[in-house]
Amino acid sequence: MLWSDPENEPPDELREMQDMLRRLGVFMALAMVLAMVVIGLR
Length: 42
Description:
single chain, rod-shaped, transmembrane, transmembrane helix, membrane, MmpB-like
């Protein structure tokens, strides 16, 4: 690896998409837990 090589960082769009997917995954997990609780209470 040379000093002139670009740093191994993903572009901003990719980083934003990864953050959005991570938030969506957390939201989906919480929604599933909430659905399980609602189904369990019935």
